[in-house]
Amino acid sequence: MTLPPGLRRYAEHPFWQAVGILVLAYVVIVYVVPLLPGSALVPKSVVLQYMATVLVGVLIYVSDNEERWARFREPITAVLVQPRLKLVRGGALAAVTLIVGCITFGHRRTCAPSTRRRLRRSRSVGSRSP
Fold first, then answer.
1. So where are the chain's domains?
2. What is the mean pLDDT of residues 77-88?
């Protein structure tokens, strides 16, 4: 089976190979592993650890060969430097900001009730003293 030339260009590029491996690893860890007999859902902390391990492995593989490493960095450098990709650069900045904001908001929602209880207790204890 041969790929169309436009798709083959992406499939042969180290950057897109790395992105594909990371996406595939995430899908396997989150969706396939729980389907195995005797398995349970994978906790988010374990998914994060596995994905960090996969990322390190991919970066080691990509940086093993100088030519491959240079080709891997091409799209990243292009987005950061080329004036014609200013819109993409702005979109990437907005996406990263949104992701960090969503993670922070999700963390705040899980931590807020206990913090509020502690604040209520400290206020009620302070108001009882003469």
1. 1-81, 85-130
2. 94
> Which residue's entry shows tokens 């913090």?
115
- Alpha carbon distance 60, 53 (integer Å): 11
CA 113 to chain centre: 27
Question: What digits encode the pLDDT tens for the residues 15-29?
Answer: 999 999 999 999 999
Which residue, among 72, 90, 78, 89, has the nearest Cα to 20 in the 3D structure? Answer: 72
Question: Would you state the structure tokens that stand for residue 91, as one six-digit string?
Answer: 């979109």
The pLDDT assigned to 127 comes to 53
Say yes or no to pLDDT of 67 above 70.
yes
Q: Residue 88 is encoded by which pair of tokens?
A: 């993409």
- The reported pLDDT for the residue numbered 110 is 62
> How many Å apart are CA 85 and CA 100, to the nearest integer?
23
DSSP 13: S
Separation between Cα atoms, residue 55 and residue 22, nearest integer Å: 7
Q: Are 89 and 52 in contact (CB under 8 A)?
A: no
Q: Where are the alpha helices (DSSP H) in the chain?
A: 5-12, 14-27, 44-63, 66-81, 86-128
